[in-house]
Amino acid sequence: MWAYVFRRLLWMIPTMVGILLINFAVLRLQGVSLVEELQLAQSDAGAGTARADARQGGGSTNLENYLDRFRRAGNDLPAVVNLRGFTDRVSIEARLHAASPSAPGKESDKSRAEKELWLYGRFAVLPLAAILADDACADLHGPASLAFSLCAYTSVSPREAQELPTELLNRIRDDNQFLRANRIDYRRDAGRGFVTSDKAAGDKRARLLAFIQDPRNRARYEVTTGDRWSSILGETGFTDVMGKLFTGQLWSETKKAYVFTLIGQRWQVTAWLVVLSIILSWGISIPLGIRSARRIGTVEDSITTNVLFLLWSLPVIFIGTVMLHHLCTESSGRPAPFPNAGLWTPGSETWPWWQRLTDWAWHGFLPLICITYASFTVLSRYMRGSLLDQVTADYTRTARAKGCSDDTVIYRHALPNSMITMITLGSGLLAELFTGFTFVENIFSIQGLGLLLVDAARQSDAPLVMGTTVISVGLLLVGILIADILYGVVDPRIRSRYG
Amino acid sequence: MRQALILAASLLAGSVLPLMSGETPDPARDGIPRLGVNFLIPYDRTPNDPAKQRGTLRTFGETPKGLNSFLDNSTTSTIVGLLTSDSLCERSITVPDAWQSSLAESVVISDDWKTFTFSIRKGVQWQRPACASKPAYAWLDRDVPMTAKDIAFTIEVILNPQVDCPSLRNYYEDIEKVETPDDQTLIVRWKRKQYTNLDCSVDLSPTPRHIYACNRDGTPIPAERFGAAFNKHWFDEIHGVVGVGPYRLEIFEPDNRAIFVRNPSYWGVPLHFDRIEQNLLVKEPAARLVAFKNGQVHTYALTPLQYKSEVLDRAEPRFAAFNESDPKAGRKGELGWERIKDNAFYYLGWNLRRAPFDDKRVRQAMAHIFPKSRIIRDVYFGLGQSILADAHPDTPYYHRDLKPFRNDAKLARDLLTAAGWVDSDGDGLLDKTINGQKVKFSFTIKYYANSPEWDNALGIFRNELKKFGIECKPTPLEWKELLRVYEDKDFDAVTGGWQKGWDLDYYQTWHSSQAEVQSGSNHCGFKNARVDELAEKLRLIFPIPERIAICKEIQAILHEEQPYLFFRSAEAVVVWQNLPPAGSSDRERWLDGVVRGLDEYHPLMVWNSKYYVKDRRYWHLRN
Predict the structure, then answer these.
(1) What pTM, to 2 d.p., does this model score?
(2) How far is residue B225's CA from residue B202's CA, in Å, rounded to a whole number?
(3) In principle, which of B41, B118, B248, B583 could form an S-S bond with B100, CB 3.0–4.6 Å?
């Protein structure tokens, strides 16, 4: 049995990683890229000052701030596969030519071609320096100097600002300022492509080249063959998020807090609701299914079946909203029977325990009904069907022929066998309930994980979505594990196979 | 033009006077910026009514990313800043073109609008932070006066390249020098004359240098570590906020509540409420409406659909019924409602770079066909005003003499025929021969997918166009895709909206340079030499009558050229706990004074959080 459990546990790891990988890729596709963020920022800059129009080709100031934000969230890295290590001068030149305003193609593609280069970091520094050194590429010196200054730019995290020695911090600051000050101004001309508009272009170029020829600087941006190969899978957005996930450093930019701190503050609310709703739904559905199976064909069975299917056809969001409007809303002079928000009355922390418990039950009643009612139908119908299968089987007929009472046949022989189907169903219950909470917590304004997930998805906060997804996937896998163990408990064949 | 100038001047003069009641009016201090003199309206201490200063105001709020307004520009962090702090000067809530004194007792602008010299009010103290009572922060347990250096520190923070406030920095990068010769004098020198210098200078707020320039233990943060440390400052991590304003933040629980309590040592006139509580827990519009109906908050803004069901369809009988002839009918119910104007507008933009909308006559024909009033009535439930220009009709900047393109089939047909669009082959669709090829009149309108109102509005427009033999294909797009459409100028027609500030700027949306620049806002490709000249001039002109004249001239050209089909201005519906029912003893639930605010304030300032949350004459509780 332990070998069986161990094998199941091992399978959970690749399953979890696989689900997270798909999740991450989808999030990346729908999240805001640097290109879009800069586009929004540029139109914002246009609203502010006349000077924004003077800086073309994305050459507006403060680009480093956006780069910092992207680096903090790991959004500067490719999602799953990083081939930037194999960037060479030729490919960068081709990219810059493709980004030129005189090149054919859509503006958005050109803009993306140029701006994505800014995210290449150390991999593009030396190839860009080679372009800057080449007189034949004079038309590209403007955008190349901008890309060079951004790829060579060093971000300093708040922790590094605390810990790094003063001399190093000063050097980083001076280098960053130097790079920014020596960008060669250029403008975009639809007919001529990139046009250098900087009188000091020659001096700036010479200074940038001197900077990279300094052996100390050059060493910082050298890329070895080992770096190139290890970066393919090792330096990606996904590995960055996974690294932070397993070290607990996943940071939510929208909530300005560590993801697991946020989850830690909220998991209890959701966990309590999950446990109670499982007890409620199984506690009601199984006896209901058994009763229905034993009274098959009667009026009672028809009524139960129809009512349950009617309930099942009503979406949670609809029932929740109806409950909110009719059971939680005050109308002329009549107070609402149930509270409309939260799980406890503000200030109830000082009440005696029994009063708090009553208050909690009063607040939790409707949300619980809301997340539980739909599962009554599925569970009880499966229970009914599965039990009916067993009741008509040969072995139950034999038991009856041997003189066993109806109760003995049902509860001792048929029920344990029909539970295999129920266990299969129950494996996904934990995760399903978690999803159901996203609506219920939203409608009843309950500060749980569901609401956190909705907020995170709304604001495209990838780390927070990943953190909450880990919990959801974890619940699903735990559910499957429990189901697997229970199969072993109820089915002697599985038990005997794994000892 | 002369008529327009007189109208503007009379608007300004007529409304400034009530503010000055109780004091001897100083004609030089009317709040309208001018060179060489202190023009600020003096701080008004008359609306101080201690009898009404009590109770708690409850509203909804959103949990911001952080409370540091440099790093987060959400509505909540703005409101937190407004309640806990003050700026040097404030716009008048009755005449938004006028400025009044706040932390600055005077300002003198010199050097051709490049140098601003402020005299800072004496005796203003920083609030003591809540954490000062803990032993670890005992070094903060002292009185600290607010000085000119705290405002200079604000600029220092904004201009630090490492501080994560790039869009804010855009507005201040032209500052040449900031000087503080003494604690009460602040001199801001700009590199060049530009109209935005005015707003950026007079709207500055102080930043508590004694906290943000220090480490957790009170030691100063070295210059080389300041930028990165500020982005994740220890004071923000403990949700600390201090200011010099009328309230201090007592409790902040993200996604739950924010509670402000009165600052007992406030330098100015106290506001009405002892406490202001923001409910950050309830987020869904449906849940917010229920919480409002249950009396858990004093006020809320209905969504258009809620306005339709709750007010127009009478789902909630406590709201007074809609009455077309009485716009103030909503004030009579137990729950009050009123439509509030907002300085945002929506439009249909045409791509002037290609056929068929490269022809002015076709664009004008579209304006004759688009059933603006019907759509506002049927799709938006009457919310919003029909507009002809990109300024709000309630501002003096709006050109009221523009003649609307009335819905007239004959005029539209004549214009289309004059432009060469006729049904030559009798297939029911208009066509025209362009470069030797017969082209059908068929176009797409791209719009943001998550907007049921645009779905309906464009559906109606499409049916109208069909009657003229024009095929229109509304195409909904996701936000990211729409950004790409703007960037590539890849559209025939596109919908959009602009949120406007009080001051107008025509450079961003209409200057021809912005049609070519990457990510420029002149999506339509509008180019007009006179508009270019006027838009450039507007960024350098300070006297208001001249600014109004320029804006109107631009609007007249835009109206004639029709690069946008200007559609509607935005409108919200504010609701509040209005009148107690018979026998009600809950006096803390019902608000008073709202109606006075609605009548007296400038219509565009009523729902502007920047002003109403702080006004001393606005909402208070009923006695």
Answers:
(1) 0.87
(2) 30
(3) B41
A128-161 pLDDT per residue, tens: 999 999 999 889 999 999 999 999 999 988 788 8
Nearest CA in chain A to B501: A47
Give the separation between CA B47 and CA A377, rounded to whole angstroms. Answer: 64
CB-defined contacts A:B, below 8 A: 181
pLDDT in tens, B123-153: 999 999 989 999 999 999 999 999 999 999 9
> Are residues B290 and A162, on separate chains, in Cβ contact within 8 Å?
no
Domains in chain A: how many in total?
Answer: 2
Distance CA A159, CA B12 (A): 53
Quick check: is A22 in a domain?
Answer: no
User: Count of CB atoms within 10 A of residue B462's CB?
Assistant: 15
One domain, residues A211 and A67: yes
Clarify whether residues A336 and A437 are in a common domain: yes
Q: Which of B231, B483, B511 sits opposite A158 (nearest CB)?
A: B231
Indicate yes or no: CB of B488 within 8 angstroms of CB of A107: yes
Q: Which amino acid is residue A331, in one-letter code?
A: S
A254 touching B, CB under 8 A? yes
Confidence of residue A49 (pLDDT cuts 50, 70, 90): very low
Sign of CA dihedral A264, A269, A270, A272: positive
Whether domain B9-280+590-621 has CATH 3.30.470.20: no
pLDDT at A434 over 70: no
Residue B513 · residue A53 · CB < 8 Å:
yes
Those of residues 364-423 in A touching chain B at CB distance below 8 A are none
CB-based contact B166 A166, cutoff 8 Å = no
Strand extents, DSSP E, A121-277: 186-189, 193-196, 251-252, 257-258
CATH code of the domain containing A306: 1.10.3720.10
In the DSSP assignment, the letter for residue B581 is P
State pLDDT tens for residues A72-106: 878 889 988 999 999 999 999 999 999 998 888 88
* Torsion-angle region of A460 (φ positive above 0: left; ψ -120 to 50: alpha; else: beta): left
Two tokens at B191? 């590199």
Q: Is pLDDT at B424 greater than 50 in this prediction? A: yes
Please check whether residues A228 and A374 belong to one and the same domain. Answer: no
The structural architecture, per CATH, of the domain B343-571 is: Roll (3.10)
Q: Assess if residue A134 is contained within a domain.
A: yes
Residues A294 and A398 in one domain: yes
Contact B41, B20 (CB under 8 A): yes
CA distance B24 to chain A (A): 38
Print the domain residue range for A211: 33-249
B201 CA to chain A: closest CA distance, Å? 13
Residue in chain B nearest A188 by alpha carbon: B517
Domain stop point among A222, A249, A276: A249
- From chain B, the residues in CB contact with A52 under 8 A are 170
A496 CB within 8 Å of a chain B CB: no
- pLDDT above 80 for B21: no
Same domain, A312 and A222: no
Residue A14 included in any domain: no
Select from A214, A249, A284 the last residue of a domain. A249
Ranges of each domain in chain B: 9-280+590-621, 343-571
- Residues 437-456 of chain A with CB under 8 A from chain B are 442-445, 447, 451, 455
| A328 vs B contacts (CB less than 8 Å) | 290, 294
Q: Are A371 and A278 in contact (CB under 8 A)?
A: no
